[in-house]
Design a protein that fits this description.
The chain is mainly α. The protein has six helices and no strands. Helix 1 crosses helix 2 and helix 2 packs antiparallel against helix 3. The longest helix is centred in the middle third of the chain and has 19 residues.
């Protein structure tokens, strides 16, 4: 599954069920995003957050900050920062 599709799936769950499973997932997302931001890229906390959106090891590497090709783009690091900040 593409990263964006996983994000959309999570967003839809939160939107459709804010008092149940969606609400629990929203709290998990916020807690993991906060820990990731506080600890920084390439930490276990960031990896735990990235696991919410990754469907395979390559995506996890990209989202965790270990994909050097992605990191060397002008937009890659900003996209990772936005992903965490937007939670």
């Amino acid at each position: 599954m593409k990263i964006i599709d996983k994000m959309d799936e999570l967003h839809l769950l939160i939107y459709k069920d804010p008092q149940g499973e969606g609400g629990r997932k929203a709290r998990e997302l916020q807690e993991k995003a906060f820990a990731a931001i506080c600890k920084g890229l390439r930490t276990p906390e960031w990896k735990a957050y990235a696991c919410l959106f990754a469907s395979n090891p390559e995506q996890l590497a990209r989202l965790s900050g270990y994909d050097e090709e992605f990191n060397n783009t002008t937009w890659g690091p900003r996209a990772l920062a936005y992903l965490a900040a937007n939670s």
